[in-house]
Automatic annotation (TrEMBL):
Residues 215-313 form the HTH araC/xylS-type domain. Pfam families: DJ-1_PfpI (PF01965), HTH_18 (PF12833). SMART domains: HTH_ARAC (SM00342). The keyword Transcription regulation applies. This is AraC family transcriptional regulator. InterPro entries: Class_I_gatase-like, DJ-1/PfpI, Homeodomain-like_sf, HTH_AraC, INH-QAR.
Amino acid sequence: MHTVAVLIYDSVNPFELGVATDVFGFEHPELGVPWYRFLICADAKRPIRSSVGLLLTTPYSLEHVREADTIIIPGPRPGLAPVSEALLEALCQSYQRGARIVSFCTGTFLLAAAGLVDGRCVTTHWAWATTLATHYPRVQVDPQRLYIDDGQILTSAGTAAAIDLSLHVVRQDYGAEIATAIARRMVVPPHREGGQAQYIETPLPSVSDEGELFSATLNWIMAHLDEDISVEHMADRAVMSPRTFARRFQATLGTTPYQWVLQQRILLAQRLLETTNESVERVAIRCGFRSAATFRLHFHRFLSTSPQAYRCSFQREPDRS
């Protein structure tokens, strides 16, 4: 069983602790897969005071971190309270033994303090990105991304991006169908496109007739991913010029129409590979790719694996009851 340990320490963000608990801490027998073993590990024997003053206690300590396959670091408010050397040492030891380390929001500061992200590309909340880059000049800080998977170390942006990264981890471990089921239970999208730019910019005005048409166009695209969909066709359905539609798309979703449609096609392909026995060629057609070769190229670019290898890893056993 895969063990997940989440670290708590003075000034820890309780919302991000809650995200880790909600995603990894509750069993899901209805999904038909063995869920994670979940430990909340404190860096001191006394009660831990969160960033809002909530006192937290747990029977697990830093000694139990060595049992974990994945370690999660909810973010602190930087500078609110010093982080113990024992916690930083536990992170270094865990990294050296090959554990996967995941940080939420400003948890990246702890990784930087431990020297684990020198030369790596990481992200954090956009409001703290400059501070992180200034204090740790060896770290490559990208304030635009919702999360970054750099192999053994994964970092996320603001607090809600902790959900995005958590679902990404579940998707890695169990596949897209299980991650989508968890997202549905949490009433959140299984995957958000774009980056933090869409949240830094001035908020969009309240929904207008144009906004309703734009939303309806996105729903139409999702139902017609097998078709040849051009930007001109999408813009026409939204009653916009192609240039206006592309600009609206970038401002709303933080990416281009082409990249968004491509991502939705890959997500659909993941579900089909997990839940059907259709050939790769048939999956390619159902997802709107012109050929199996094109499908394999894009699939590998997004997921660093082939469709067949993905199916072997994540296709669920049929129900024989």
